[in-house]
Amino acid sequence: MANIKLVLEYDGTHFNGWQYQPEQRTVQGAVETALSRLTAEPIRVHCAGRTDSGVHALGQVVNFHCRRVWNPEVYVNGGNGLLPRDVRILSAEPVSDDFHSRYSARSRSYRYQISRRVCAVGRHYRWYVPYELDLDAMHCAVSGLLGEHDFESFCQAGSGLHHFRCLVHRAEWRRQGDDLIFEITANRFVHNMVRIIVGTSVEFGRGRRRPQEMQAILQARDRRVAGPTAPAHGLLLTAVDY
């Protein structure tokens, strides 16, 4: 059996998330249907990180096993010919049998985009926040997330995880035109972690919290202590490193 790695991009606007669900339009369902038709065998794909409904990806990584190996162009061109327009295969390559898109990953990177004006173009990829925001306070607050911490306060309640520890390599806010961009890289993420960090960051930006409070939020290990969950449509999975 061949083990094939694909890099995908997709617009999550009209998908009910990544994970296959009967009678629902999901990214996994669309990709598996296309690859099964292409290879003429049942295909099950594994992804680097499951994305929720409305979340987008620029660099999602998947792998799957099939009986034969074709040139990468066959998977890219043939797969894209069978996929809906809001999912694209960017690259394909055969990998070793022990490669797993999720378990072999060393880190994942996400971007969240906030717009300071009402957009006509690009509104499906930005959260419009109508308040003045102190970018320096937001950046100072998230700098306290660097390193290894317990992120239970930034995880959706009832997720049932065995542990909430994540090692954050990068966390920063920056300005790009009318947008405020949050970028974060970590070895793993708990459910809704990035969106809760963003929602909490907005509270720092509005002056409702002081940046020094970030450590107290982490140490509380209580979802109720952190801020609201930002909307899904501003979030993009940008890259996975191995």
Q: What does the model show?
A:
Helix content is 21%, strand content 30%. With 242 residues, the chain is of the alpha+beta class. Strands 1, 2, 3, 4, 5, 6, 7, 8, 9 and 10 form a ten-stranded mixed beta sheet that branches. The radius of gyration is 19 Å and the shape is globular.
The number of helical runs is: 5
Strand content: 25-35%
Query: What would the CATH topology of the largest domain be?
Result: Alpha-Beta Plaits
CATH homologous superfamily annotation of the largest domain: Pseudouridine synthase I, catalytic domain, C-terminal subdomain
The total strand number stands at: 10
Mean pLDDT: 96
Question: Order of SSEs, N→C?
Answer: EHEEHEEEHEEEHHE
Structural class: alpha+beta
Assembly category: single chain
CATH architecture of the largest domain: 2-Layer Sandwich
- The coarse overall form would be globular
| Cα separation of the termini | 22 Å
Q: What does the radius of gyration come to?
A: 19 Å
The unreliable regions are none
Largest sheet entry: 10 strands, mixed
